[in-house]
Design a protein that fits this description.
The chain is of the alpha/beta class. It contains 11 helices and 8 strands. Strand 4 and strand 5 form a beta hairpin. The protein binds zinc ion (ZN).
């Protein structure tokens, strides 16, 4: 998922069951839906191919996102033509029914998507009933279940935090041990103590297999920002081996690098 440019993991546009263009109307919000089921992107697409209904995006349970109607086009989603013309519809996979709830991964990825859309279309920070609406606001329906009920506060918290994070004004929301680390999420610059850097080194070491390239880039960055001359190799070794690392590090920059990395992993 390319959040900054809102490019979905899967781009598989429908050939019918939507209206090309938006009849001159401006996008002014996002409409939140639930699938009333735990469907994959492919299954959503099949449903929408087989009946006169659609949405722009589907967020499946593992957080993977598919786009089936382009933002510039009008999905048949809200049971209300003005809402179809003026909002972008996002479908969340459910993890349970009675009542319909959404699992953590889909909730987080969907919130990130809502934030990215609000940012992309200049709609401002996501706010419920201001620029983020439940399907049931537009027409009589139970949709989107608990996303408009017991899970609404969590949904909107994540939307807001992802929005701030994307705007460079905050940390990525929790969902990962490192992200929950209160030091890591502490805003502001300054320096980080060596033992903290070593802990992060362990974190990178843990994901080193997948993120070797990013890691070496970040190690280089740390080395560059050290108060005393130090080679990237030395930083890497110290980080990996839990050695006594004695360098000053730009806290904000490193925290952002860690959060970016963790967010990327969460998005995959
Ligand atoms: Zn709906």
């Amino acid at each position: 998922m390319d959040w900054d440019n809102v490019r979905a993991d899967v781009h598989a546009p429908l050939t019918e069951h939507f209206t090309p263009g938006r009849q001159g109307r401006r996008i002014r919000g996002v409409t939140v839906h639930h699938m009333a089921g735990n469907l994959t992107i492919d299954q959503c697409r099949s449903v929408w191919e087989g009946s006169p209904t659609s949405a722009h995006y589907a967020v499946q349970a593992d957080g993977r996102i598919g786009q089936m109607v382009d933002d510039a086009d009008t999905a048949w989603a809200c049971g209300n033509w003005d809402a179809n013309l003026e909002t972008i519809s996002v479908e969340f996979a459910n993890d349970r029914f009675g009542p319909w709830t959404v699992g953590a991964k889909a909730l987080d990825a969907g919130a990130h998507l809502v934030a990215a859309l609000c940012r992309c279309y200049g709609l401002g920070r996501p706010r419920w009933m201001a620029n983020v609406f439940p399907h049931r606001h537009w027409s009589p329906t139970q949709c989107p279940g608990e996303l408009a009920g017991s899970q609404n506060a969590e949904l909107m918290r994540l939307c807001g935090e992802w929005y701030d994070y994307m705007a460079g004004a905050g940390s990525a929301p929790g969902g990962d041990d490192m992200l929950r680390d209160e030091n890591l999420n502490k805003p502001g610059g300054g320096t980080v103590p060596a033992d903290q850097a070593v802990a992060w080194g362990y974190y990178y070491a843990k994901c080193a297999k997948e993120y070797l390239d990013e890691m070496s880039g970040q190690v280089e960055e740390i080395a560059k920002r050290s108060a005393t001359p130090v080679s990237p190799e030395a930083v890497a070794r110290a980080l990996m081996e839990h050695g006594g690392l004695k360098v000053d590090i730009d806290y904000e920059k490193l925290a952002k690098a860690v959060n970016d990395d963790a967010a990327r992993r969460m998005a995959e």
